[in-house]
Design goal:
With 616 residues, this protein is mostly helical. It contains 26 helices and no strands. 76% of the residues lie in helices and 0% in strands.
């Protein structure tokens, strides 16, 4: 739930100092991870001396960095939540609901911290496969969660006293009613699964940040059942992100921030503007093509939206174009770019569904090309004039060509790395960071130490947000597996498809991912529903890479669909445009993308042609 943004006047010096420490810790751990991964690859290829402990250290550093980054994001109230419903409550009721959310976040964060530290104590003396102590993973996680607890408690403390009392009273009343009913009439008590489901949707639509709503759903089952220890919850959260593959997420996010800081972003956009900016619908064509290029570099959709939107939305205003329509196209372009490698959601789906990430990257290229062409065609067809696109910063042509060469060099490095087998997705993302730092500091001379450090802090915070959601979703996925939900869903979908054909399964899968992509943050929707639906698709004879691409696009449409799509809210914030101005144009663009998705879904060759050609 939303809270007052942290500023020097909003909290005392202790909280400010703690936030600076959290920022520094998250950024330092991320930088250390970068050194470990790059050093390991270089030693392996140059000296044929693989470092056996490198993967374990890298994963442990990532877990620590993620929780400290998530703590910093919480302190700044950057956590994503569904605010559509609570924004329509009266001010007094909204204040109480927000206070309840702040109290729940404090309790959840405290529970994670306690059990992570306890798990560290229980694993003392145990070692990983390479011989490193296991507690070195759980203690940093517990420390980050402890910071999170302190920040959450401070957010709750800064609310009016009457709201704090009301929040505590309402929460206590709900718990008391459950305990009384469980004692006096246990036959009337809903099952733990029902309570988990109802509690999840109530807290989600009540504005609780998505990661905490997922965690609370899992905790509701654990608390009600009373058979699972709390350390299992902490263990599953750690397991959700303790994977070397997921380390590509913070690295690619960092590449996006470094590109914006080192001047590469504005050079690329200006080059595109000079190439196609003065044609009919030139601004919109530049916006779509910019998203195509940036998505092939940074991997983070919101980093792409920020990089492109921060330059082109002001340009749209200066050219007297409707900024609401510009933001709508920006959001639609982000949906299109969901399958352009190295997309973070493709990495997450490959991880949770055990699919080839390189195969998913290749499979997403032609579908993205189809959607990009459709958006460009509409932009040209319905453009009102050849409006001039003027940017505030106009680098010299020499700077443009150097920026273009450097940017395309980065894209080539990413794809060549995959195809050659030189490195994994994670290792390539690490070298992409090094490349962006070298280009920004030595070639463009625009990336100083202070700016680079700020980029590391931003990347650690943003990736902490994403990975905390992944960790919380893993804890819920574990509970759902215990309740045999995946099996039940699979059998239901198989029976429906057996009666009506595979086409119905495909349509139902698209509908589920659009709806849940709108309600949940994209990563959470994929983590929960990817492993549920993919085995069914394989049993029905659907190519898993093709089906994975369909799921990611459907999730992207939901993520940017009004009124709940969190991605659309993010695009509106970046463009400084009220969401009401974007609803009509975004529905048109999403309708076009939905038609493209149906074509992709029922013409598998669009997704499978390139993977087969490349041997995936």
């Amino acid at each position: 739930m939303s809270g007052a943004a942290l500023s020097p006047g909003a909290g005392h010096r202790f909280i400010i100092s703690l936030l600076l420490l959290s920022d520094a810790t998250a950024a330092i751990l991320l930088a250390a991870d970068l050194l470990v991964v790059c050093g390991s690859v270089l030693l392996r290829f140059l000296f044929n001396a693989p470092v056996e402990w490198a993967d374990d250290v890298a994963r442990g550093l990532m877990v620590g960095s993620s929780f400290f980054g998530a703590a910093s994001a919480l302190a700044r109230s950057e956590n994503l939540g569904v605010a559509f419903f609570i924004d329509r409550l009266p001010a007094a009721a909204r204040a109480v609901v927000d206070a309840i959310g702040a109290l729940l976040v404090t309790v959840i964060a405290g529970y994670v911290a306690y059990n992570a530290i306890k798990l560290g104590g229980l694993t003392t003396g145990q070692t990983s496969g390479s011989g490193l102590p296991l507690e070195l993973t759980f203690y940093p996680m517990g420390a980050g969660a402890l910071f999170m607890t302190i920040f959450a408690a401070d957010v709750f403390r800064r609310r009016p006293l009457r709201d704090m009392i009301a929040a505590a009273a309402v929460t206590g009343l709900i718990v008391g009613l459950y305990l009384a009913l469980d004692r006096l009439a246990p036959e009337w008590v809903p099952s733990s699964g029902t309570l988990m489901l109802v509690g999840f949707f109530i807290t989600l639509f009540g504005g609780l940040p998505i990661g905490f709503a997922l965690a609370l759903a899992a905790l509701t089952f654990i608390w009600v059942e009373g058979t699972l220890p709390g350390v299992i919850f902490a263990q599953q959260m750690a397991r959700g992100i303790d994977n070397f593959v997921l380390l590509a997420i913070p690295f690619f996010i960092l590449v996006g921030y470094l590109m914006e800081a080192n001047g590469m972003s504005v050079r690329l956009i200006e080059l595109l503007q000079r190439a196609v900016g003065r044609m009919r619908g030139g601004l919109n064509v530049v916006m779509v093509t910019s998203m195509v290029l940036f998505s092939g570099i940074s991997g983070s959709k919101m980093a792409d939206v920020a990089a492109v939107g921060s330059v082109l939305i002001p340009a749209a205003r200066r050219s007297r174009q409707n900024p609401g329509s510009a933001v709508a196209l920006l959001a639609a372009s982000a949906v299109m770019a969901e399958t352009i490698p190295p997309c973070i959601n493709l990495i997450i789906l490959g991880f949770v569904a055990n699919l080839s990430i390189g195969g998913l990257f290749v499979a997403g290229l032609l579908p993205a090309g189809l959607m990009a062409l459709a958006l460009i065609a509409v932009s040209i067809l319905f453009a009102k004039s050849r409006a001039s696109l003027e940017l505030e910063q106009r680098p010299a042509m020499t700077g443009l060509w150097s920026g273009a060469i450097a940017s395309f060099g980065l894209i080539f490095m990413i794809f060549a790395g995959f195809k050659s087998g030189f490195a994994t997705a994670t290792e390539i993302s690490a070298f992409a960071v090094v490349y962006a730092v070298v280009v920004g500091s030595l070639v463009f001379r625009e990336l100083g130490i202070r700016t680079a450090a700020h980029s590391f802090v931003q990347a650690a915070t943003r990736s902490g947000l994403v990975l905390f959601i992944v960790a919380a979703a893993q804890s819920l996925a574990f509970i759902l597996t215990l309740q045999q939900v995946p099996h039940a869903v699979g059998e239901m979908m198989l029976s429906l498809s057996g009666a009506h054909g595979t086409w119905l399964f495909m349509l139902l899968s698209i509908a589920v991912l659009i709806v849940m992509g709108s309600v949940l943050e994209g990563a959470a929707a994929l983590i929960i529903f990817g492993p549920l639906l993919l085995p069914v698709a394989v049993r029905l004879g659907i190519d898993p890479l093709h089906f994975g691409v369909v799921l990611v696009i459907a999730m992207g449409i939901g993520l940017f669909a009004p009124p709940l799509g969190l991605g659309l809210y993010g695009a509106c914030l970046i463009g400084n445009v009220p969401i009401e101005q974007t609803v009509k144009p975004i529905l048109g663009y999403l309708g076009l993308l939905l038609v493209c998705l149906l074509v992709i879904a029922f013409v598998p060759g669009i997704s499978t042609a390139l993977p087969r050609a490349f041997g995936y």
